[in-house]
Write a structure and sequence with these properties.
Elements lengths: L2 E3 L6 E3 L3 E2 L8 H8 L4 E3 L7 H7 L8 E6 L6 H15 L4 E6 L9 H12 L3 E7 L3 H9 L6 E7 L11 H7 L3 E5 L6 H7 L4 H9 L3 H10 L4 E3 L6 H8 L8 H7 L9 H16 L5
Helix pairs in contact: 1-10, 3-4, 8-9
The protein binds NADP nicotinamide-adenine-dinucleotide phosphate.
């Protein structure tokens, strides 16, 4: 497993971590990943997987980096502090390594959750602050109201078939030494990826490189300097395969071939539409 520095923290993060949305694998897949060096686990208060993560790291807590998230409905200061306390309890730990705002809350000024999150840092309950699904502008606004901390990570959707972040956010992360945590790096499953990869470029390169399609897709993500990926796998064999995506490099010719896969890239207008839909959802209590 290869490692990358998390922001400018000096912490070395494995370039392949483990996601746990819809995770139903129990402790074994997580333990298998940790043994192979995937010592970075991502969860959230809404995933119903924090207990499993806590169970998997029992006895080895300090060798695993745990990231969790607070949902926008809990961004009011008292609610955010309570959410963190509840996550700590479910994770069975006394600190969260990375606490992330899961999505922007369009109904509340960003200063409120950022002040509460800084209070948690002062209390020693969380070590680092991250955001998820924030645009560049939203990240800048969030950073501007922090008094003595830096946003060190941005968790966003990124894969060989969804390259929206290449329209600006990836460069912003590079320029500001922010780690980009790529979620859904397998497009929620290889069957989805296959739909965009009609000429089976992943299969061709996998055969040439002696790897699997999933390993090629993950390696493509982590070939970018500031990017680490967090595939989710309920199955131990998938976890092992995913860990094998690190430690080697696709050659420039293979990277060029992967550019032939049709990929999504949400432009400014479409992104604005998504945000508007989320804002309306939050207004009427219909989204997280
Ligand atoms: P993903 O990791 O792209 O895909 C997960 C699917 O891929 C599962 O069905 C899994 O199967 C399958 N899979 C895993 N490894 C495989 C392999 N080697 N070969 C073939 N299939 C494989 O999707 P995701 O869960 O959406 O994203 C990963 C993580 O990112 C989440 O778990 C979560 O932690 C995070 N995330 C964050 C947000 C956010 O808003 N911040 C949103 C989505 C996701 P099995 O489970 O059967 O092994």
């Amino acid at each position: 497993m290869k490692y990358k520095e998390l922001g400018t923290t000096g912490i070395q993060l494995p370039e392949i971590g483990m996601g746990t949305w819809h995770y139903r694998g129990g402790v074994e897949p997580l333990k298998a990943g940790i043994e192979l060096g995937a010592t970075f686990i991502d969860t959230a208060e809404t995933y119903d997987s924090e207990e499993a993560v806590g169970e998997a790291v029992k006895g080895i807590r300090n060798s695993v980096f745990i990231a969790t998230k607070v949902a926008p409905r809990n961004f009011k200061a008292a609610d955010l502090i309570r959410s963190a306390e509840q996550s700590l309890k479910r994770l069975n730990t006394d600190h969260i390594d990375l606490y992330q705002l899961h999505w922007p809350n369009y109904l509340l000024p960003i200063a409120e959750p950022m002040a509460a999150i800084e209070e948690l840092v002062r209390m020693g309950k969380i070590r680092y602050i991250g955001v998820s699904n924030f645009s560049v502008c939203e990240m800048q606004q969030a950073q501007a109201v922090l008094s003595s901390n830096k946003i060190i990570s941005a968790q966003v959707r990124y894969s060989v078939v969804d390259r929206t972040v290449e329209l600006g956010l990836l460069d912003y992360c590079r320029q500001n030494h922010i780690t980009l945590i790529a979620y859904s790096p397998l497009d929620l499953g290889m069957h989805n990826m296959r739909k965009s990869d009609r000429n089976d470029m992943l299969g061709k390169i996998a055969a040439e490189a002696g790897k699997t399609r999933a390993q090629v897709a993950l390696n493509w993500c982590i070939a970018r300097d500031v990017v680490v990926a967090i595939p989710k796998a309920n199955h131990v064999e998938h976890v092992r395969e995913n860990c094998g995506a690190s430690g080697w490099l696709l050659n420039p010719e293979q990277l060029k071939m992967l550019d032939q896969i049709s990929f999504r890239q949400r432009g400014a207008l479409e992104s604005a539409g998504w945000r508007l839909a989320r804002r309306i959802g939050q207004r009427f209590g219909k989204s997280i």
